[in-house]
Amino acid sequence: MTATTVTWSMGPGTYEVPLSLFATNRQRLAEKLQPGQVVLLQGGDSINHYDTDVEYVFRQEAYFTWISGVREPGCYFALDVKTRKGHLFVPRLPEEYEVWMGKLLTCDEFKKIYAVEEVHYVDELRDVLKSLNAESLLTLSGPNTDSGLTAKEALFEGIDEFKVDNEILFPIIAEIRVIKTPEEIEVMRYICKVSSDAHKQVMLYTKPGLMEYQCESIFLDHCYRVGGCRHVSYTCICGSGGNAATLHYGHAAAPNSKRIRDGDMCLFDMGGNYAGYAADITCSFPANGKFTADQKLIYEAVLFARDAVIREGKPGVLWPEMHLLANRVMLEHLKKGGLLKGDVEEMIKSGVNGILQPHGLGHLLGLDVHDVGGYLAGCPPRAAAAPLSRLRTARSLQSRMLLTIEPGCYFIPRLLDGAKNNPAQSQFFNWDVVDRFRGFGGVRIEDDVLITDDGVENLTFVPRTVAEIEDFMANGANFK
Predict the structure, then answer these.
(1) What is the pLDDT of residues 338-385, one digit of tens each?
(2) Which of 12, 209, 375, 461 has the smallest count of CB within 10 Å of its CB?
(3) How many angstroms separate the CA atoms of 115 and 30, rounded?
(4) What is the CA radius of gyration of the chain?
(5) Which strands sit side by side in the sheet containing 402-405, from one edge to the other?
(6) Are 89 and 120 spatial neighbours (Cβ–Cβ below 8 Å)?
(7) Apex CA 117: angle with CA 114 and CA 118, to 5°?
(8) Do 289 and 244 form a contact (C-beta atoms < 8 A)?
(9) Whose CA is closest to 23, among 43, 4, 42, 44?
(10) Full-prediction pTM beyond 0.90?
(11) Quick one: DSSP state of residue 159?
């Protein structure tokens, strides 16, 4: 049975992921390497809740998913570049496993499930690698430029008997992950549609008097019950009112626990995860379904910034230029609305854009919500100063990249106070107007997009204009 005939899904109505997706990834990697090299990756392990016997719900490491599609913990994967064969190594589990955890699968059964050429037990790893006569083992070690953490390098008893190179693999596999295959793009279309529909359900459900976490629960329910997404890609951000100005709201110290009030803007940033692939969508809307003049002003400043990037984005365009384009459009609209004054280019030179939008325009997207490849060697480096230093990549756009476009406008008390006390920035604000927005929170509009040969294809399908949002929240329109 070949990878082209095997699929994986979460059941009826969910997307059938072809296992050829992972075989293609292995082929792409092998083409960049030399015969005699063997790639060795170590998958994720189950993690217990502190000292208890309760485990976190397992989620596979992204590079391991990319090369194998394997969903179980405790595995290794080797790719023999010379033969192009994949070798999966699974734990040899005790017979008692079958009593408590389910059927013990044979190596042949794993071969059929994952459409891989060879399956062995982990305790055979050393001997199998010896039999491949590898000139060198390529292990994965390199920095994640978003987290600052390092990819976990494969280790096993007996590895010191091999010539190991931990420098060759990382830049190659990370760069390959930046450009998606047609099969990967189809998975992303699915998870973006599921996540879009979940956001729509949340918009229909939300009203003043509810708790933020109740809206979060609607999103989680739809993604899992309808879309088959056991995981979401990150902790859901469900900020209402002033909480919408906290960029990563929703964590343990701020757990989506405020009651939504009439007059609040809601900023809900949530994305499902399917077969390891991540969506990342943000919707901002008034809790009562009707924009005030102030809410419309801020919302449309952000919407027009998003529109400009979708209009101008195409292969060859530098991402920092798209960020600055979005900033200019937003600042111009806020100036017309009376919040700002003066020359927009001078505002940007003084950093006013970073006061109102301290984060970058967006990020690469794929198996990680902040996907790899942002600042690899040979790519444009990170800018030295904020706000451009906060961009997660400075690359030029390429066809088959997936990114988020997520401009925002926030009224963050600490940043506003700093600007008010900084003469170089303070001169651009009409403070009598701006102070009216303290407590407003913020607006973010985040779409997941595909760069095509000639532009941008938006994979996100939610109401976006003021009229669309008001009509949808009133009538449930456009739900398809």
Answers:
(1) 999 999 999 999 999 999 999 999 999 999 999 999 999 999 999 999
(2) 12
(3) 17
(4) 24
(5) 402-405, 447-451, 456-458
(6) yes
(7) 95
(8) no
(9) 4
(10) yes
(11) G
